[in-house]
Amino acid sequence: MPGIRFVNALVFVADMKKAVSLYCGLLGQEVAQDHGDFVQLENGLALHTGTALQRTIFGDGETGTDRYGRRNLVLYFDAEDLDAAYERVAPHVTMIHPIEAQSWGQRVFRFYDHDGHIVEVGEPQ
């Protein structure tokens, strides 16, 4: 369809400092733009403070007590040295599972970010 193109995925985060620390500090991603409540990463992922985004979209800033992640979205990354990535990341996150071989032959590990979004890191295919 002409005129419509996908630009990026945007995830709600409760604490921008924690989110940037995880995605940039621990996972090695780079910031492309930083506008405080909105941070665009070089890889296309965008992080937006949840209360600010809720005000923009819904006209309120209520968050309730639930985390933003709902176990229905996976943010996928790959790592040339999966074992080294696991050793670096695992002590700092809530793991879903350690490195496992998937039915399609790829080795991956999964964890939750600070907001409960699922993050998967696998070997390049």
What does it look like?
The protein has 125 residues and is α/β, with parallel strands linked by helices. Helices cover 22% and strands 32% of the residues. The protein has a four-stranded mixed β-sheet. A four-stranded mixed β-sheet has the order 5-8-7-6, covered by helices on one side. The longest helix has 11 residues, at 16-26.
Fill in the keyword field for this structure.
22% helix, 2,3-Dihydroxybiphenyl 1,2-Dioxygenase, domain 1, 3 helices, four-stranded mixed β-sheet, 125 residues, alpha/beta
In short:
With 125 residues, the chain is an alpha/beta fold. Helix content is 22%, strand content 32%. A hairpin with a 5-residue loop joins β7 and β8.
- Please give the domain count: 1
Mean pLDDT: 93
Straight-line N-to-C gap: 30 Å
**Oligomeric organization of the protein chains:** single chain
- The CATH superfamily name is 2,3-Dihydroxybiphenyl 1,2-Dioxygenase, domain 1
Largest sheet: 4 strands, mixed
Poorly predicted segments: none
Bin the helical content: 10-25%
By secondary-structure content and strand pairing, the structural class works out as alpha/beta
CATH architecture assignment: Roll
CATH class: Alpha Beta
